Amino acid sequence: MNKLIINGGKPLKGEVTIGGAKNAAIAILPAVLLVSGTCKIENVPDISDVNKYINVLQELGVNINRTSPTELYIENSKISSTKCLFETCRKMRASYYLLGALLGRYKSVEVPFPGGCDFGSRPIDQHIKGFEALNAQVSTEHGIIKATAKKLMGTSIYLDVVSVGATINMILASVLAEGTTIIENAAKEPHIVDLANFLNTMGANIKGAGTDTIKITGVKELPGNATYSIIPDQIEAGTFMIAAAATGGDVTIKNCIPKHLDSISAKLVEMGISIQEMGDAIRVKCDKRPQKVNIKTLPYPGFPTDMQPQMAVLLSIANGMSILTESVWDNRFQYTNELKKLGANIRIEGRSAIIEGVKNLYGCSVNSTDLRGGAALIIAGLVAKNITEVHNIEHIERGYEHIDKKLKALGAKIERVAED
Ligand code: EPU
Q: Model-level pTM?
């Protein structure tokens, strides 16, 4: 177990390069199970969620050669099982994509109920409704989800909630189904477009990804034998934007897609922070105390829930009182108890955090409660006076590639050391 020791109060300055998108990678990795030929995947983030997924695929018999830390060469002609092992899958949220992928290709799958960050209830009723609409039989017992089908048949489905996971699972299960599937009220996140682009590159016929209606015309086979490069991580880029702003820094974030960051840039501009877009880079500069702002999280293209905790840090030191409302998850404010230890003035009322900006935060020892909450604590440590220790960083390492090294290169005083 490791912890981070941060000596805060130094503005971040310089350039940082963003890695591949976590939430695209963990959808594309199971999608390779649908491909009969080989595939090469580039710009794969070097994070623990991806490494765990690689282990799960290898346990199923997929041959994966990591030709460099960010490149995978994959061949899966020798799948030995469609039952996923309990221990490797249980801790991952995205293990549920194995349902869509294995059902889609082999018409049979067994996966343990997914784990992941605890944000209150995380139902998967829309995934199950989608599989059943495609003609699969789904049962759940003893913590295992089983799905089988004689033949998957294209269908029309309207999602009752805009769900990233259910949209992805429907795409995975229907690319090889007979006939056409239409998903209405689909999620529009950039990683959904990325998954569709990957599958189309491998031979699928998916249209409309990125809109709320996706049309999938089933094909007999995904021949593959192609190369695909994953998009840059929108949330990693957003996290560095906020870290730059909160420390009063000047950072150029390279290898990002500024369009994916529009909702974050708009809020930073509203707070008086300078944002300059330059092709595939964004420069964030802040030389005065940011102003208060109200924010509500929403599905893409709204303000991302996965940026809510990081934004809370910036609002904690802004001038005035801000209201930050979470509309995607029931309970995503656990991290605020840790932020309060650093001196933040936050009160939770229902699904909103009322944040009264303070002039300074003060370092102390804090625990990461989840991935993005942990990233928020790092930003708070960078802002705070004196020393902050961030524990339980395994949550953060699930989704941020070498975050300590990237921050150090921007001038942060941060060390990753073993816990006593
Ligand atoms: N929902 C249902 N029924 C379902 C599925 C979802 O009611 O069958 C509800 C959820 O309870 C939630 C809302 O719909 O209130 C949205 O959930 P969604 O399915 O979109 O979330 P997810 O697919 O489980 C992904 C990301 C999360 C991110 C959300 C929202 C992955 C592995 N996870 O989760 O990412 O917060 O979309 O954008 O892609 C993170 O990266 O830190 C993270 C938690």
A: 0.97
